[in-house]
Write a structure and sequence with these properties.
Layout lengths: L1 H33 L5 H4 L9 H15 L1 H22 L3 E3 L6 E3 L4 H16 L1 H16 L3 H31 L1 H17 L2 H12 L3 H12 L1 H12 L3 H9 L4 H12 L1 H21 L8 H10 L3 H30 L11 H4 L1 H17 L3 H4 L10 H39 L3 H16 L1 H16 L3 H31 L1 H16 L3 H11 L3 H25 L3 H9 L4 H34 L8 H11 L2 H33 L1
Helix pairs in contact: 1-21, 3-30, 4-7, 5-6, 5-16, 5-18, 6-16, 7-8, 7-10, 7-11, 7-14, 8-30, 9-10, 9-29, 9-30, 10-14, 11-14, 14-16, 15-16, 16-20, 16-25, 20-23, 21-22, 21-30, 22-30, 23-24, 23-26, 23-28, 24-26, 25-26, 26-28, 27-28, 28-30, 29-30
Subcellular location: Cell membrane
Pfam families: BPD_transp_1 (PF00528)
Protein name: ABC transporter permease
């Protein structure tokens, strides 16, 4: 009894100390806010103390541009060769010679590409997948989006192999050199994944000009990190017995890597390939702003001109392409994970690769046929149709009949929720935010985490971006909160009912493959531009991790513990509240962390619809080609994401350790 009492007292003492510390910290911040007339520098960062980091970055970029223009021109020339080939093959025609000697070779026939898409799907996942993939490409053709979609696909077809090869070699290096992974690669990957996509475009635009090459390089930088992480994870998970066996067989280090370890890690590597494809597609859409063209450019032009129907059609074509590529790459990854690797050895190429041989033959035949039958070369306008007038009519009907309801909801949301939260965030003392976040970092991860969190927060203030930073925090925070408020209960219901899970899973899978552009279009139709539109689009984009991780966490609770609770006489409610929920809480909080990061990524895209935050700062910098302004704003956004990620990860690690 005495030992138990003293143990409980020892456990409660640190909790009491931290409660007192937080009470004192909050009281100090409140005092600073109330005394802001006497301590204005502690509430609003002094303008005369702003560090001109943006000017330094601009000067550095101009120095690089002026002294290394030969290098950027060489890179552009080298990369434009495969890129031009892919674009000519899929979307344009090959033009050889000039003037009277000009010879035009046709691009691949749309009929052949649709048939090959069907064959690829059938080979990877059967007739159903073949029908889905082929149907998506046929849909793109019949809706008149073929050329734009092929421009997008051409960029992806060059960017994705580059990302895979680069990510594979960097991942191998990181796996072999833990110090490099810890000191160089992990921080670089964190920055690459948290810096907003718009911020990638600015240095690319400055160094490589307004061209598809710039878009491809930006896409490669953004989409490479998943492959690096998948390579490190896959190699680290190879069983030690396989490693030992390869050494006993007399393999050299190179043979062991390429013939034993990498083939054993293939399932994880294929998951990384799938993620690279989806991120590349998302980035190529955004990169349309700096010369990539394609479907993203069509959406951008339609949104700027407020042509709702055209924007919706281009957005749906993006969705069709995303679903086709995602399902196809997932099926290939699944086949590798299950060991569906064909080992047939045959001297003839067509017997060893029958599907590939058939695809090449179909593409060649239909393309040659296109020289004589125009309907095979280009999609005939007679068989295409458009739903743009239908979308426009539908939006007009909703606007006319439900304008008062929509407007009342929008105004009520702005006046009663958004404006008060925004005023609170923007009026919060910068010094108080640094102090409270540092205290949270110290409690969760010690002095190192506290110093990191405080330093990243101070950066946002000393660069003169504090007000914009807090505007971003307000919109991202409220969007993530609502997404969790919706997603966690849905995930809870899915975990307790297989029938609900079967309904929810395809919905969240579809939401996950939709590029971020596509979430803005329908919301803009109804709510116009502004913070409400940004919030609703962000909630729809960020709700998926909250649902998925909640469902996964609750289903991962060991059945033995649930049975033990039932045997002990616990009701269903007690079993859930006292056993399942505490054990699933770390997983659920990981989902909350991912929801915040996805909300932050989407908020930046929403700068296109009139938000006034760091995303707008990056957007303005892009339009003015101001590299310093855009990169510093992008770093501020990245640092918000890193602070949230590190704090939530530290909390989750503590919770896991406490629960064993």
């Amino acid at each position: 009894m005495t030992v138990t009492a003293s143990t409980s007292e020892a456990r409660s003492r640190p909790v009491q100390i931290w409660l007192v510390a937080w009470a004192c910290a909050l009281a100090a911040v409140l005092a600073v806010f109330l005394l802001q007339d006497r301590l204005p520098w502690a509430v609003n960062y002094p303008a005369n103390a702003i560090v001109p980091v943006a000017d330094w970055v601009s000067a550095l970029m101009n120095l690089i541009k002026s002294n290394f223009s030969w290098l950027t021109r060489s890179i552009t020339a080298a990369l434009s060769v495969p890129l031009d080939f892919a674009l000519n093959l899929l979307a344009k025609n090959f033009k050889i010679g000039r003037g009277a000697d000009l010879i035009i070779l046709p691009r691949l026939s749309w009929v052949g590409v649709c048939i090959v898409a069907f064959l690829a799907g059938r080979a990877a996942g059967g007739w159903k997948l073949g029908a889905l993939v082929g149907g998506c490409f046929l849909y793109i053709a019949l809706f008149g989006q073929w050329t734009s979609a092929m421009l997008t696909l051409g960029l992806i077809s060059i960017a994705v192999p580059f990302c895979i090869v680069t990510g594979l070699f960097v991942g191998i290096w990181a796996w072999r050199k833990p110090w490099a992974e810890r000191l160089l690669i992990s921080p670089a990957l964190d920055l690459m994944q948290t810096i907003p996509t718009f911020a990638y475009l600015i240095p690319m635009l400055l160094l490589f000009g307004n061209s598809p090459v710039s878009a491809m390089i930006a896409t490669a930088i953004f989409a490479t990190p998943p492959m690096v992480r998948a390579t490190m994870l896959g190699l680290s998970r190879v069983p030690s017995e396989i490693d030992d066996f390869s050494e006993m067989a007399g393999c050299t280090a190179r043979q062991k890597l390429w013939r034993v370890l990498l083939p054993s890690a293939r399932p994880t590597l294929m998951v990384g390939v799938n993620q690279v494809i989806m991120l590349a597609l998302n980035m190529v859409i955004i990169a349309s702003m700096i010369g990539a063209g394609g479907l993203g450019y069509d959406v951008l032009l339609a949104l700027r001109a407020l042509k709702v129907g055209e924007a919706m059609e281009a957005g749906l074509a993006i969705v069709a392409l995303a679903i086709a590529l995602d399902r196809l790459s997932q099926a290939i990854a699944r086949n590798h994970a299950q060991g569906h690797v064909y080992q047939e050895v045959s001297p003839s190429f067509w017997r060893r690769y029958p599907n590939l041989t058939l695809a090449i033959a179909i593409l060649a035949a239909t393309t040659l046929l296109g020289l004589f039958v125009p309907a095979f070369a280009a999609v005939p306008k007679a068989i295409t149709f458009t739903t743009a007038p239908m979308w426009k009519t539908a939006v007009s009907w909703i606007t006319i009949n439900f304008f008062d309801t929509i407007e009342a909801f929008r105004v009520a949301l702005i006046l009663n929720v958004l404006n008060p939260v925004r005023a609170f965030c923007e009026g919060f003392p910068w010094l108080g935010a640094v102090f409270l976040l540092g205290l949270a970092g110290y409690q969760l991860g010690g002095l190192r985490l506290a110093a990191l969190v405080a330093a990243l927060t101070i950066f946002c203030a000393v660069t003169g971006l504090w007000e914009k930073t807090m505007a971003t925090v307000y919109l991202c925070g409220i969007s993530a909160f609502i997404a969790c408020l919706i997603g966690i209960p849905i995930g809870l219901m899915a975990s307790r009912s297989d029938r609900v899970e079967k309904v929810v899973t395809p919905v969240i899978d579809t939401l996950q493959v939709l590029p971020s552009f596509c979430f803005i279009i329908p919301v803009v139709m109804l709510f116009r531009v502004g913070d409400v539109t940004a919030m609703i689009a962000t909630v729809a984009f960020a709700v998926v991790p909250a649902i998925r991780y909640t469902n996964h966490g609750l289903r991962q609770v060991p059945p033995a513990l649930i049975e033990a609770a039932k045997v002990s006489g616990c009701t269903k409610r007690q079993t859930f509240l006292r056993v399942q929920l505490p054990l699933a809480l770390p997983e659920i909080m990981l989902g909350v962390n991912q929801t915040i990061l996805m909300a932050l990524a989407m908020i930046i895209i929403c700068a296109m619809v009139g938000t006034r935050d760091l995303g707008q700062e990056v957007f303005i910098a892009l339009s003015k080609a101001d590299s310093g302004r855009g990169i510093v704003a992008g770093l501020a956004i990245a640092f918000i994401g890193i602070v949230a990620d590190r704090l939530f990860n530290a909390w989750t690690a503590k919770a896991r350790a406490r629960l064993g």
